[in-house]
Structures are given as C-alpha cells and as structure tokens.
C-alpha cells in the first residue's frame, strides 16, 4: 500500500496528515484549494514528511487566502520559512506580443533577416578575400594541413556516392532519351543528349547539390558548434584568425575539389549512358565513343569546368557564413545548417541560369 | 476560482508510485570493484565506495583522477568495464525501465558544465523534470515551483526568463542546481557546484545544501575542490587517487592517514586557511 497525503475538514480547521511530498501529493492541491478560505486553520500536526513542494502548497494558501498554519513542527516551520523567503515574482519566459502585431513583426523580421543575410554574405566574401590577400603576401600562413585534410573529406570521400549517383543519372537520361528519340527513328542522337547534357549541366549541377548536402551542411554544423562552445572566440583571443583557420581551408578545398568531382561525375554519367546504349540500343562502345567525339564540342567540357569552382565557392561561403552566424543555442545550429544547404542550392541554380545565358552569348553552344 | 483550480492541475500520475526498494538500509550508493577504462587508459580499478543515507559525502582528488567519471558510472551514463554499482539497493545495470524511472525520480544531478537545455529559458529548464514525472501538473503551479526553486538556488528573479546563453558561468551553475532540486530528490549529485561562484555565493550554497539535508534528509554526493565547502558541510570525505578511493572518513580521520597527497591537501596553505575559518565559524556559532 502506498501512502498518500490526506485531508480532513472539521469546521474552520483543515487537518493534513501523511507525507506531504511531491510524489505523494496526488490531487491534494486542488482539494486544499477548494477547502481553504480566509481564516481557515491548516493543521500540520499529522504530517509525517514534508518537502519544499508540500511547503509551497501550504505557503501559497497562507499567502493568497490568508489561512493560518498551526501544529507545524520545527522542520516544517523552517521549510515554510525557507519557501516564503524564496517567494519572489519570477517570469518564466520573455513576453511576446500576440496576434496581428506578432504577425507583422515576424514578416518584418523575415524581410530584414533576408536582406541582412545577403549583405552579410557579401561582407563575408569580402572578409574572406582580404584574408586570401594576407595569405598570398605571407604564404606561410596558409594552413596546408587543414586544406589537404579538407581535400579528403570534401573530395575523396565523396567519390563513392557521387559516382553512384552520376552513373544512375547517365542511365536514366539515356533510357528516357532513347524512348523519345526512337519515335523519330533517331535513337543514335541519344549519344548527343547524354554527352552534352552531362558535361554542360547535369554533371556539375548534381555534384554541386551533393556537395552542398554533404559538405556545406557539415561546414555550417562544425563551425556553428565551435561558436557555441566559444572555441571561435578562444581562437580570436589567441590571435588565430577564424577566417584563416576555419573558413579558408574549407573554401579552398571546395573550390579546388568541385571541378575534379564535376569532371568525374560527367565521365561516370557518360559511362552509364554508354552502358545503357550498348545493352538497350545495341550501340557498341567503340561507336559510342567515336560519335561522342564527333558531336560533343570541347567547349562543353570547359563550360562545366568553369562553372564548377564558382559553385564550390558559393557552397563553401554559404556553409561557413551560416556557421559563423550561430549564436544562441543548439537549435540554431540546426536551422543554420538547413539554411546553408538551401541557400547554396538556390544560389547555385540562379548562377547557373546566368551562366547559360552568358555561354550562349559568347557562342559556346 | 474554477480557473484557479484548472491552473493548479493534478499531481497524480499515470503510473503506480512504488517507494524505491531499499534492502541495503543505510547505504544509498554502493560501488564494488569498479573498473573504468578508456582505450589504454585505466581510470578506475578495484574502486569501492559506500554513501550512507542522509550524509553529505565530499569526493576529492586531483584533476583528472576520475571524479566526474565515477559520478557518471554511478548514475549509469558510463558503462563500467567491470564491477558493480547499486543505487537505492538496486543494481544500475540490468534494471527494468520502470525501476530506473523510479530511481531517476528520486535523484537530482548537477553536471560540471551545467548542461542546461539551450533552447529553453532557465525557468523552463527547471520545469522539465516536473513535466516529465507529473504531466498533469498545471502551468501555474509549475511556474510557481520553478520560481521559488530558482530564488532558493540563489538566482535573481529576473533570470527566470533568460536563456542559458544569456547567463554568466556562476548563474548557469545555480540554474543547474535549481533543476537538480526540481523534484525534491532524496539523492543529489553535485559536480563542483561552487566552482565559478563568488565566495559569498559559495557560502550561501553551502548553507542551502546543509539546510536541505537537515530539513529533507537529503543524501549528497559532492565532488569539489573547495576546501571551505569540505570543512563547512561534508560529513565524510572520500579521497580518489591511484585509480581507487584510498581513504574515506571525516576530515579529522583523514588527517591521521599516512599519505603524502592527503597530508599535502589538508595541511597545505589553503587547507590550513580553510580549517582556520571553519574553526572560527564554529566558535561564533557556539558563542
Ligand atoms: N569520454 C572519455 N574518453 C576518454 N577519456 C576520458 C573520457 N572521459 C574522461 N576521460 C579521462 O578520464 C580521466 C578522468 O576524467 P574526469 O573527468 O573524471 O576527471 P575529474 O577527476 O572529474 O577531473 P576535474 O577535477 O578536472 O573535473 C581523465 O584522464 C580523462 O582524460
Ligand atoms: Mg570533473
């Protein structure tokens, strides 16, 4: 049988007995609230044990209803005194305005934040370029180890997943292209399709998306957690520039790895397309390669390779920038990580559209 | 009036509330043959320790001797390599989730770094254990309880609505203490509670802990480097060195142990100063 706190009422006196502790209170607070009025005497002489919550329940009745406590032993009396002393108005959370004002506030906030983010990103790029300048003047300040380590994380370890993805995309394009082109008896143009679209667009774009998801998010989370733990502040006070130590290696690694990854992705996608052409369209590999060399201009490769480092720069900038913005708490690390990926992919696609127009204008089509 | 009732809510639980079984009687924490190893590094080996009901046990030892790891093994956050740990008479390994819940309800833990939930305000942090174990408690009562716990722990009332990243180091400690005290536990684990507190705050903390122990019969496992705290409130002190507890006892008993580190610890300049001020406090109390 478990013990619970009990309450008996006799006229002006409410008698409590049993343990008056948090675990044993049950619905006693409600019943007490109903039973006690101004001038009621609360008799504690039957109470076996009391903790601070029990004392608080009694204290608030004394405070709000003007009840009087009788029969408290020494311990209970000192507990009551202790909680009474600790009774100060404490606000649990900051006040928030309600309704329309809040909505307007949030819209305004979001707008201001979007503007500030864009400005911040530009400023961040400027700061990064300054530190690039410093490193060029003092090459010994480049953290070569950190850069090479990032090469591995950003580049080498991504080979597996990017290869698999590109291979499958090559197959899908060849397959879908073949189905459509067969209607005109022009299956052989599948090779044009696979070769040109992967080299110009898909290879680099899919790689950018994968790198943003893999590395951009990691940059934001790593730097964000370091900011939370005050590691970044500690660096600054020691005289280590976070730009040089954290951002620059990640930036360089991404910028340098992106073209390699994009070229690799395009080649693997073409292999996938070639394999499908061989199996489904009976185009032997030799013919496939020959035709590829005829119909795909070398400028297609340049288009991809020019875009790749720019996309890499955007991904690294967005990741590191968002990471550096983390301030308050763990939730912000998550939000900033998401923002880094979304921002990177969005900007990559916007810039890609500009590139498409630009390359057409200069005649690389 | 009816509103008020609703705001108060109910403290009843869904689950049956068993008293924690306690065949061990007076020993709340029992550690036997504990071994902890990280890779090559052996932190504890053959460590034995008893913490008795209603006592404040101070745990001392040089930095890195494994005080925090010992606490983590006792509360089950660190799986020991070998050995047994029982709390309230039940072994920590292999207990059912229900038993574990019962034990968790009766202890409060203050981590060395505070370990506050960063997305909640200080007051909401204190409410987390209350909400977990008393889901039907009304918001008003929750707010009131978290309020007085914070003030009791020595925080300014205005700190309740702040987020942990807006607090100073000492304030984080106090907020962590308020959260540890949220459920009015029977057993309190404190990892360096006075580190980072000003001397007045540290003295107030000593007073609070001793008061709670006297009024609520609390058992306290107290890791500390603070000699004043040791002299002021600890009933016994356990000394951690050489991967085990090399001595346990009152400070007077420890002073008689023939061990260089213990002698150095208590009779070094700081030890003597703390002893002196503790003696003075006693004399003042007597007068
Ligand atoms: N997760 C872990 N992995 C590896 N080693 C650890 C881990 N946690 C602790 N250690 C090691 O165990 C030893 C004891 O650490 P612990 O944190 O318990 O020290 P402590 O006695 O609490 O010191 P302090 O007084 O400085 O807080 C240290 O040498 C530490 O390096
Ligand atoms: Mg420690």
TrEMBL record, chain B:
Source superkingdom: Bacteria
GO MF, one example: ATP hydrolysis activity
Pfam families the UniProt entry points to: ABC_tran (PF00005)
Transmembrane annotation, as ranges: none
Keyword Transmembrane helix: no
The ABC transporter domain, residue ranges: 29-267
Coiled-coil regions, chain positions: none
Annotated stretches, region: Disordered: 1-22
PROSITE patterns: ABC_TRANSPORTER_1 (PS00211), ABC_TRANSPORTER_2 (PS50893)
Database matches in SMART domains: AAA
Keyword Nucleotide-binding applies: yes
PANTHER family: PROTEIN TRIGALACTOSYLDIACYLGLYCEROL 3, CHLOROPLASTIC
Name this polypeptide is given: ABC transporter, ATP-binding protein (Cluster 9, phospholipid)
Provenance organism: uncultured Sphingomonadaceae bacterium
